[in-house]
Amino acid sequence: MPERYRVVANFGAAVAVLDEARKVHQAVPLTKLPQLVAGDQVECEQESGATSLRVVKLVDRDGVLSRIDHRGKPKPLAANVSHLAIVSASKPGIDPLLIDQFCIAAELAGIDAMVVINKSDLLDDEQHEQCLAMLEVYKAIGYPAVLVDTKSEGKLEPLITELAGKTVVLVGASGVGKSSIVQQLLPDLDVRVGAISAATGFGAHTTSVTFWYELGSGGSIIDSPGVRQFSVAHLSAQDVRRGYLELVDAAQMCKFSNCSHVVEPNCAVKAAVSAGSIAQWRYDNYRKLAEL
Ligand code: GDP
Ligand code: ZN
């Protein structure tokens, strides 16, 4: 009987897989299988006399994060991702338009989003209030949203709590603190990478290989500089309309089913913005991104 394993890293010719007892093995996929990525669940068999396992089946994926290659084809970066953790920070600057773009990209990929504002230590009282108000808007839409700081004791707790039971990939602009967050979440990173390297015989160059790591909370994180640099491909007006969840909700009451929420009469979205139940800045971002 084949057994179920988790792909924790892909080294090209072989992958590192984790068994249910958390032991790392080297495994070689059958050539008919698609390219495996970190987070994949697979079935493996032990062939007699072989030093590595044989991956015989890829279990259906749920929540695939892909990048578009130079031929315009999606190339999976990580699988079974439940949440995109969108990281932003006061330095280099909180960019709600970019956060919204990532929320839309997550929605299109069938992945939930969560909003993380880092470097709360750099905020003055007024900025702190503004951040909390912004996070409340995201929470009201249904996105988990937390304010954290990696430099002060205990200030990453809200994120750690939120990660329980989820599989996340951290994304966001350079310099917002993604590596710092990973270092805090996985203080034993070198040890883990060393264990994978020892079990598989592959020198695990952390700069190029994407790893799946289990967190203490029952959650997991899929990480590599490559996956952190996941960026938003061009979003069509239709994508944007689909990705603003609170607008989609309100739009059910618009007079016209194809309402753009700009010039049409009896528009429930515009009414909700006027009434304050949809944030003005989310609506403004929607118009910017949909080019309306
Ligand atoms: P990345 O490019 O998103 O991976 O960002 P890094 O983790 O490399 O962090 C960029 C810079 O921000 C580094 O100098 C960090 O020391 C700093 N940094 C990270 N988190 C915090 C924080 O919570 N507060 C402050 N003040 N600086 C931080
Ligand atoms: Zn409308």
Question: If you had to describe this structure to a student in words, what would you say it looks like?
Answer:
- With 292 residues, this protein is an alpha/beta fold.
- It is 33% helix and 23% strand.
- It has a 6-stranded mixed beta sheet with strand order 10-9-8-11-13-12, with helices on both faces. Strands 1-2-3-5-4 form a 5-stranded mixed β-barrel.
- α1 packs across α10.
- The radius of gyration is 21 Å and the shape is globular.
- The N and C termini lie far apart (57 Å).
- The mean pLDDT is 94.
- The site of zinc ion (ZN) has 8 residues, from α9.
SSE layout and pairing:
Layout: E1 3-10, E2 15-18, E3 24-29, E4 41-45, E5 53-58, E6 65-68, E7 74-78, E8 83-89, H1 96-109, E9 112-118, H2 125-141, E10 145-147, H3 157-163, E11 167-171, H4 178-185, H5 189-200, E12 211-214, E13 220-223, H6 225-228, H7 237-243, H8 245-251, H9 268-275, H10 280-290
Parallel strand pairs: 3-5, 8-9, 8-11, 9-10, 11-13
Antiparallel strand pairs: 1-2, 1-4, 2-3, 4-5, 6-7, 12-13
Helix pairs in contact: 1-7, 1-10
The structure holds guanosine-5'-diphosphate and zinc ion.
The site of guanosine-5'-diphosphate has 14 residues, from helix 4.
Helix content: 25-40%
Summed up, the helix count is 10
Strand content: 15-25%
Low-confidence stretches: none
Rounded to the nearest angstrom, the radius of gyration is 21 Å
Note the overall shape.
globular
Mean pLDDT: 94
Number of strands: 13
Q: Kindly, what is the distance between the CA atoms of the first and last residues, rounded to a whole number of angstroms?
A: 57 Å
Alpha-beta classification: alpha/beta
With strands numbered from the N-terminus, the spatial order across the biggest sheet is: 10-9-8-11-13-12
Instruction: Sketch the major β-sheet.
Output: 6 strands, mixed
Order of helices and strands: EEEEEEEEHEHEHEHHEEHHHHH
Small molecules (ligands, ions, cofactors) in the structure: guanosine-5'-diphosphate, zinc ion
